[in-house]
Amino acid sequence: MQQRLAELERENAELRLFRAAFDMAAEAVAVCGPDWRLLVVNPAFTAITGFLPEEVCGRHAEMLYASLGDGTFLVEVDEHLRRGSSWEGEVWSRRKTGEPYRQSLSVACEHDMRGGPSRHVLMFRDVSEARDNAEKLWRHSNYDTLTELPNRGLLLDRLLQALVLAGRENCRAALLFIGLDGFKTINDTLGMTVGDMVLRESALRFGRCLRKGDTLGRFGGDEFIAVLPHIDTIDEVEAVVRTILESLQEPLLIEANQILLSCSIGISLWPGDGEDVETLMRNSSSALEHAKAAGRGTFRFFTPTMDARAQARSRLAGELSEALEHNEFSLVFQPVVNLADGSVGGAEALLRWQNRYIGAVNPDQFVPLAEEMGLILPIGEWLTLAACREAKAWQQAGLGDLRIAINVSPRQVQQTDIATTLRRALDESGLSPRLVTVEITESLILNSGTEIIRKLERVRDLGARIAVDDFGTGYASLSYLKHFPVDILKIDRSFVSEALNNADDARLIEAIIALGHSLGMKVVGEGVETRQQQAFLVERGCDLAQGYRFSPPLSAERFRDFVRNFEPQQP
């Protein structure tokens, strides 16, 4: 008898332990009979679902999953349990309030002596927050936060899928590389907030132009990519492309600003324009560059000629990165003449590159490339020092105090302390700063803030002068000049060449000379090639001139000979 009582006490202790575990479990537990009617639930069940035990016990467990569709979810689980002892998965359910949530659910079945179900045990936990966080992380990793379009990584994946689909269905795929024209100007003049709004509006307009199944994504900056996965004819591609171009014909209304915008598009096709994702991307980018060069607001299909140019550009970039190390750069000097008395006042230092394999490379080719690659900074430092050394050598050779003009790129001014660079060159060469003119571009004036002005003022504080090169070709307001430390205006050669035949160009030159003199500046006429052009500038009071009328750019030795033997060219 005592032994039986001890066994009962032990069983009761086990039951209390199991009950405590049942009540204290963090996961919801619901026990159902063979007909799936709920028999008992634990407190975690109530905490997750909101249902009290008396509200659910006796009811069919399908009530928890009625929102899944046709009400046959547990029937399907039952079918599975006949082939095994458990089922696991994630499902949607609803709380008592009607709020949907995600369950990580496992169902186990206890069988009776005959092998039939005697009880079903459901255990689940709420994984809504964890899944939402995972989805947010996935979206953040795969979508652009500004436009909510697929980002570069997801785009490349979609492109790969499009190529696989095209190969399987024996059709073609197209890749459109879309670049907004003049977007930097919008950012610089209206601010980045407006620029972001322009990107979002452009994304919306482009998205409405695509077919069902196409993918639009933001590649970065002001560039978008469209993947067209099922192409039967080139006409289909052109139809989409023209719709995209036309989508920007209507001005964008952004914060009361009516913004006229256009885009250019480069197109590559598979198969034909590359066998892999990387090649297609490179070739469509090359086609985009040609579309922009053709006048913008247009499109270009990739051609093998473009690829050859892209490969040549890639080789040029490789050689350019080692040009300084191999001492391949040199300077030539174009004389600058005083128009009042015909004397040589100095020279403009111009950069030249003689590559050991390619030979002479045109500055129009390598200077923009150096800008893109960030090499213009060390190259600019080399040029500044070399030019100052040569100007000092002119003095030592008895040629007098000739001025040296040094071109600096906007990036040099924006990303470095140009005054420190110049001072270092002056200290090393021994040249007086009063003989140095630093030439900046008109675009730098347009895009400058107070920091750029301070940098230029420090250059002037050294004793050097500031010149604006190619003046008249940009969009700078003339009123900007009075706020900038500018000493010299250089009239662009395009105006000088047409001054005798074009009344508008003649009047513009007269206006620039008058403006410069009214602000106490000197004015230089560039590209003077004829006696008549020289006479035109003299009559209008232009101070200085340079061009083939006097001399082409010369090597250092030939420039010295030029100065020694120079005879004034009378108009």
Automatic annotation (TrEMBL):
Superkingdom per UniProt: Bacteria
Q: Which residues form the PAS domain?
A: 14-59
Cite the InterPro entries for this sequence: Biofilm_reg_signaling (IPR052155), EAL_dom (IPR001633), EAL_sf (IPR035919), GGDEF_dom (IPR000160), Nucleotide_cyclase (IPR029787), PAS (IPR000014), PAS-like_dom_sf (IPR035965), Rev_trsase/Diguanyl_cyclase (IPR043128)
Mind telling me which PROSITE patterns this protein's record contains? EAL, GGDEF, PAS
Q: Which SUPFAM superfamilies match?
A: EAL domain-like, Nucleotide cyclase, PYP-like sensor domain (PAS domain)
Entries under CDD domains matching the protein:
EAL, GGDEF, PAS
Q: Where's the GGDEF domain? A: 171-304
Record-annotated EAL domain positions: 313-567
Protein name per the record: GGDEF: diguanylate cyclase (GGDEF) domain
**What is the organism field in this record?**
Magnetospirillum gryphiswaldense (strain DSM 6361 / JCM 21280 / NBRC 15271 / MSR-1)
